[in-house]
Amino acid sequence: MIKAEILKIRTLSTGWVLAWVALGVTAIMQLVNVLAPTLVAALPTGDGGDVQEFSESVNSVAQLALPEYQRSMLDVLGNGPLWGTGFPGIGVMIALFLGVIVATSDFRFGGIITTALATPSRLRVVGAKAAAVAIVTALGAIAMALITGLALLAGTAVAQVPIQVQTGEVLSIWGRGTIVLIIYGLIGLAAGLLIRHQVAAVIAVFALVLVEPLISGIALLATGTTPIATAVLPLTLGPVASSGETPLTLELFTGSGALTPLAALIGLLVWGAVLLSIAARRLVQKDLV
Cβ of 98: how many Cβ atoms within 10 Å? Predict the structure, then answer.
């Protein structure tokens, strides 16, 4: 069944579009990350005041020789050193949409009936879809990790600065990022199974991507800190679980986060397990059409 689900993804043009968008955007962002320190260094310092303060703040962030900058470049979620605006990175969005497409395509084209006849156990159907999403997402994460690694090698070679991140740490960042993307793929799968209608499910995911960062931002402005209620939201947990750090551009305004990568990863696992369990239960109990 898993092979059949993977074959469905391969034959969907949407799957290939998502793959090329993920790899293309990742490559472009890494190119900007490599060039940014040189461009930022050329910013005018101004004659004091706010302009000079802003220029100095940006210069303190965009330094390729900094270990924090290099670690952020390796983040497969797309939350690199210059892209930490609070909104999910390209890797997160692609994983969510992949899960939605895998879940809703059978309902859209009527293939769910054939699948149910061939495999009466609906839990096995959910398991096969989840395994297919996990495998395809992991392959995509590996490809994006290779792009980030090549960008870091090229950037440090051109800038003639040493790589400050140890091999074990690199593998740890990539490994955590891959696990995080898989969980987001499963969350997207759960959303698709719950909603079933493809367009409605995509809109729901878009709403999540837009609304959660806004809620976190409003809470931050209102309280001056990150309340636990927003710190444990799924899109907030992902970057911490992946890179273990608050994106550098956010540190200028918010400071470092208090969650550890392990705690964030466990929290995200709970989100994925709960949502997928609810979706599986609904698929078992409700009619397919």
Answer: 28
* DSSP summary character for residue 82: T
Whether the CA torsion 11, 5, 140, 185 is positive or negative: it is positive
* Beta-carbon contacts of residue 17 (< 8 Å; ≥ 6 apart): none
The parent domain of residue 227 ranges over 2-285
Name the pTM for this structure.
0.85
Token pair 């939350």: residue:
79
- Give 148-179 as a 3 state SS string: HHHHHHHHHHHHCCCCCCCHHHHHHHHHHHHH
Convert the pLDDT of each residue in 221-267 to its tens digit. Answer: 777 666 777 778 888 888 888 876 554 434 434 444 456 788 889 99
Tokens 């297919």 sit at which residue?
132
The pLDDT tens digits for 114-134 are 777 777 788 888 999 999 999
Say what the pLDDT of residue 47 is. 55
What's the pLDDT at 251?
42
DSSP for residue 246: -
Q: How many residues does the chain have?
A: 289
Q: In which region does residue 288 sit, left (phi positive, over 0), alpha (psi from -120 to 50) or beta (all else)?
A: alpha
Rounded to 5°, angle at Cα 88 from 82 and 89: 55
* CB contact at 8 A, 8 and 115: no
